[in-house]
Amino acid sequence: MANPQPGGNALTRLFKHEAFAGVLMILAAVLALIFANSGLSGAYYGFLNTKISLLISGVGLEKPLLLWINDGLMAMFFFLIGLELKREMVEGRLKNPRDVLLPGLAAVGGMVAPMLVFLAITRGNPELASGWAIPAATDIAFAVGVLALLGKRIPSALKIFLLTLAILDDMGAILIIALFYGSGVDTGYLSMALVPLAGLILLNLRGTHRIAPFMLLGAVMWFLVLQSGIHPTVAGVITAFTIPLKDRFGRSPLHSLEHNLHPYVIYFIAPVFALANAGIDLSGISLADFLSPLPLGIAAGLFIGKQIGVFGATWLVVKSGLAKLPHGVNWMMVWGLSMLAGIGFTMSLFIGSLSFEGDQMMNMVRLGVMSGSVLSAVVGYLVLKYATQTSAAEVSPAKAA
């Protein structure tokens, strides 16, 4: 976050940053499609499969570049999300439970309904069942990037609603990854990971202001968690939550780190992930492929499931009297926002990479994620554009009167 101040100002700045980041990721995704469907495809896939070793005295890791991106760089992505979540929970929009109730329940609905739609379409096929969480995710950068295209016509309360929903959605995605996407837990490595975790907690309790010790212990924990079979992005979130909000000198290591890290994550790591994971080989893909259970389940989960979940949960909460719609927001805007929540892209592709192996299965995952996300973005934009025009037309006569 570019702004160390809590509350609305930080979220407003986040909106501006993420809007441009969304454009960068769109360009990266388009570039990946060009690489995958041109004479450069061999070089593209060959580069992603390049083996990279990091060994010290024969101990370490050897992985293809694609996995270094998905396991390593994405740990930094989730580290930043963890910093954002901690700040918002301690001093921001997630501090007051009443402010969290409506977007929180909307986020829950927006995760559960897409899962059910996916499972209904795949009909419990055991070979596809592991993809149940793919359509549950929302890509913050892409969603607010589309919302930003509408400019000042969008009420600030709607922007905050979307950002809060997406942040809570990320929390849910992190829990899903931690609980369901491991490769068999090695309790020995997991036990060893408690040692750097204890060190991180001790540094936090002492109010340590230097970031280097946190990052060093976080890197050790990342390695041990990876070796344990639990996805290492979880280590990024845990490390972030140990960064002190205030040190013993009254300064904020969390704000400083968040501010410095944010540009690298959204302008480099996120686009690199998109470039590495969005390359779909379209040769030979037919309408039948689009309508096959895996891509159809993902696309329908994102486009239809998110609408049902987010809009339905919001409607139920408001009609029950538990909460009110944010100021200046109407139901048409909520409907459009529920579609933007269906832009899964980065998070959905990431969960897809944990769910399936092999180029053919991942191509089907990419096909579903891309089609569902694009449909959600385009239709959501059009609905919100109509909603803001209608709202402006209703306000103008009132002002004239």
What does this structure look like?
The protein is mostly helical and 401 residues long. Mean pLDDT is 85; it is low at 1-7 and 395-401. It has a single domain, classed as Na+/H+ antiporter like domain (Na+/H+ antiporter like fold). The protein is globular and about 65 Å long. Helix content is 72%, strand content 3%. Strands 1-2 form a two-stranded antiparallel sheet.
Rg is: 21 Å
| CATH homologous superfamily assignment | Na+/H+ antiporter like domain
Strand order of the largest sheet: 1-2
Number of domains: 1
Helix-strand makeup class: mainly alpha
The assigned CATH architecture is: Up-down Bundle
What does the main sheet amount to? 2 strands, antiparallel
Mean pLDDT score: 85
Query: What name is given to the CATH topology?
Result: Na+/H+ antiporter like fold
Shape: globular
**Quaternary organisation:** single chain
Which key terms come to mind for this protein?
disordered C terminus, Na+/H+ antiporter like fold, 401 residues, two-stranded antiparallel ribbon, mainly alpha, single chain, disordered N terminus, 15 helices
Write the layout of secondary structure elements.
Blueprint: H1 8-36, H2 41-48, E1 51-56, E2 59-64, H3 65-91, H4 97-122, H5 140-148, H6 156-180, H7 187-205, H8 212-228, H9 233-242, H10 253-277, H11 287-290, H12 293-319, H13 331-340, H14 345-355, H15 359-400
Antiparallel strand pairs: 1-2
Helix pairs in contact: 1-2, 1-5, 1-6, 1-10, 3-6, 3-9, 3-10, 4-6, 4-12, 5-6, 7-8, 8-9, 10-14, 12-13, 12-15, 13-15, 14-15
